[in-house]
Fold:
Amino acid sequence: MRAVGNVTAALKIMRSSRTRSLFTMLGVIIAVAAVTTVVSIGDGVKQSILLQANKSAKNVLTIRPASLSDTSDGLNKINGGGSIGVLTAEDLKTVAKQPHVTSAVSLSVAGNTAQGDYEYKGPVVSVDGDLPAVVNYSVAYGAFFADTDAANNVAVLGAKAASALYNANVPLGHGLTINGQEFIIGGILNSVPVAPLSGGFDANNTIFIPKSAAASVAPAGAVIYQILAKIDDAKNVESTAKKMQSNLSKEHGGQEMIKVLTPSELATKQTVTLGLLAKLTVAAAAITLLVSGIGIMNVMLVSVSERMHEIGIRKAVGATNRQILGQFITEAVMLSVIGSILGVILAAFACFLLGVFTDLHPHFNWAAAGLSCLAACGLGILFGVIPAARAARKDPITALRSQ
Amino acid sequence: MALIELKDVSKLYGFGDATTLALDEVSVSIEKGEFIAIMGASGCGKSTLMNVMGLLDRPTNGTYTLSGKRVDRLRPTRAAKLRRDTLGFIFQNFNLLPKLTVIENVALPLSYTNMSTTRRLKTASSMLERVGMQSREYFLPSQLSGGQIQCAAIARALVNNPSVVLADEPTGNLDSAGSRLIMELLSELHKVGNTIIFVTHNPELTRYATRVIYMHDGQIIQDEQTEIGQVAKTAKAQLYSRGRLSEEDDMAGVSTLMKAFPTAEQAKPVAKKRGRRGGKKK
Ligand SMILES: Nc1ncnc2c1ncn2[C@@H]1O[C@H](COP(=O)(O)OP(=O)(O)OP(=O)(O)O)[C@@H](O)[C@H]1O
Ligand SMILES: [Mg+2]
Structure:
């Protein structure tokens, strides 16, 4: 009953000083909106990664050096030149020999620039001809090289790489120079769906060359950065992965230098980086939230001293300390609650806009919205209490006298 | 048993060299149904006495018995509840909260009780009717005249059916017509049995009182029972001693008639002897 009275009174006060209330809430609005939007974006990306993992390569194992398997951007690390050739041709053979493995290909980094009509910076990867069969890449124009035309120096382009290298829409038969070696474009891949922000290997940006051509492009030898193995049936994926892991470890002297990742493990790995990013943003938002709490405290302090006379009259007519405290806390809570709600609405709007205008597909995260609202209200109470307590303790005469 | 019983009540403000003795061993006993005017020079401790009686302030020394209960050492919450249930206040100004309507202001003391909103507003409404303000219920204080504000303040002071109404210069900001309106209202309340204590600087207003208490430097120097309708003797002496024209007045063209009006200047009749105890009105 009295709480309802407090709420209506608080609403009335807030309505009569609208600008001030809005500015107080601004911190809360921004913090809640930021946390919710960032987590929602992360969620959206995570979902599309998982979706992609589900859709494309359910029965493909990824074998990587252990040092790289912790991050999703193993390729970038190799490009940075910090990697040792852990994976060897021997390992490829071992992988291929495992029961249930129908085919296995290795991907090696052979370079990172190429010259077509334009210069292009992107991964040059040497692979076996049966890569498309293993990972379900489809060729839009031309054909993927077979192991037999290896000597012909044929290159196959990812969709984005093709448009970045050439003016022509379909640059089949055009020439391409990689580290002084001439290649001819033999095929262009259909664009492959890749989760945004996942930071993983993106076939769309990649130039594929045959394994046998790698030596001429990279005299030091192309470094195998991952092996892909196709398993005959999805139900054998787990067991094969385990066996393969132990066999590979055995060959490398018992050390787990190589990691065999199932499709779902791979997806999780990719989301880890994303999670880190999200955590950082959430931390930033938490600071915003804290600052907004201090903002609330500041406004409450001003409001309390501005309204000392009101406090005096209320006390004179019989308000107890606790009732005054209740009134001011209610105001702080109302400010944070309304701020939170506006923040959530803003976040929903931002997610909608991002979904429409970017290739991120934020998945609105209610838990994040709820938690950030709770945090905002908690802070609102925490920071509202201090000035409210000060107001409540004022003795009626002092309060009445102050102007 | 007296309604209000003060015994050797002192009130000290500040400490060290800056100490002010605002009340100096005041003893007074007030019966139910009295209509008391408190007079005295500025800074003589009238407001302090009202605040102590109104449980807004605690005496430094002495005892205060209200309706037979010791109340001089109450905890803040108990004091607040007594104010809510047994006392009504009217101040000189800033009585009403500017953001609340008149009826909400009048209902304010009840909002700290468990009464339902409808009953609160009904009670407040009937109080406003009693002071002739029912047509202004939903006005904001800024839309009222000074007299109307004080009427609303009286309605608020009465809304909890208090045993004592305390009014510290309720007519301080009003002209003589406004003052009369307020005093007539208080006087009606007195007729139906309310106990009223008010502070005034205007000797004319002692007409309404049954008893006048004169203060000086924190002490009660005179306590006079008077007839309703007549200016108290001591106050009258001051009033007429002031009525005379000085040479300066003559030069400035001030007439006897103007002098007869209770102006702000005239409202401070008693000779000033402030600062004797280092006290100074803020
Ligand atoms: N909070 C305070 N701190 C220090 N001194 C105070 C305080 N309140 C009042 N005093 C002093 O106590 C004395 C009595 O003050 P009080 O307000 O009771 O006077 P008053 O009779 O009501 O005067 P006025 O007619 O001008 O309202 C004054 O000397 C004043 O300076
Ligand atoms: Mg005073």
